[in-house]
From TrEMBL:
Gene source species: Georgenia ruanii
GO cellular component labels: cytosol
GO biological process, one term: DNA repair
Highest taxon of the lineage: Bacteria
Pfam families documented for this protein: HAD_2 (PF13419)
Protein name from the UniProt record: HAD hydrolase-like protein
Classification via InterPro entries: HAD-like_hydrolase_sf (IPR050155), HAD-like_sf (IPR036412), HAD_2 (IPR041492), HAD_sf (IPR023214), PGP-like_dom2 (IPR023198)
Alphabetically ordered keywords of this record: Hydrolase
One Gene Ontology term of the molecular function aspect: phosphoglycolate phosphatase activity
Amino acid sequence: MDWNGTVMDDLDRALAAINAAIAEHGLPDLDRPGFQGSFTLPMRRWLLELGVSEEHAEAVEAAWNTGMQTPAPLRAGVADTLRALRAAGAVTGVVTAASEAAMRYDVEHTGLQGVFDHVHTSVRDKAARLAELRSLGREAFYVGDTAYDIECARSAGYIAIGVGAGYQAEAILAAAGADHHLERFADLLGIVGHEHVAVARAR
Ligand SMILES: [Mg+2]
């Protein structure tokens, strides 16, 4: 799983965090379409595209991580779906660019303790980290809300699953061509079950 915009339903929080962080450097506020139309990872690339200077990018990213430590809701269905996946024997994990402190804040404030077997925070290169973890299971799935997530998942040999209403506009995410798109998070259970059977049959 990706974290922000995927497990967390936190676009509003992210919008407030980025606007507070860039305002200190004289940059204008983003609105929701402006955020969802520009957001990309790695974070540094997005900040530079927003007009943050190389010199200030690290400080802006730190301010963002601080601003992200405010309450936000989980995406509907996430907790039950993760628990059901684990109960069915799946290995669950998070690979995120978010800081360890920011993710820990969310886990503590949403009651999502104990549902992940592996957590990788402050990841600068998702494709590389996902590739390192690929051998954890016969089939592997990565769920994300951005085209970057889909591209990284694909390149690392994962079945790529997109989820909307996150940090990127629907058209940008759709253009990345995920293997599946979640309308409801709980639909992940059916996709994992179906793909597992399909892969097993193909062998
Ligand atoms: Mg995300």
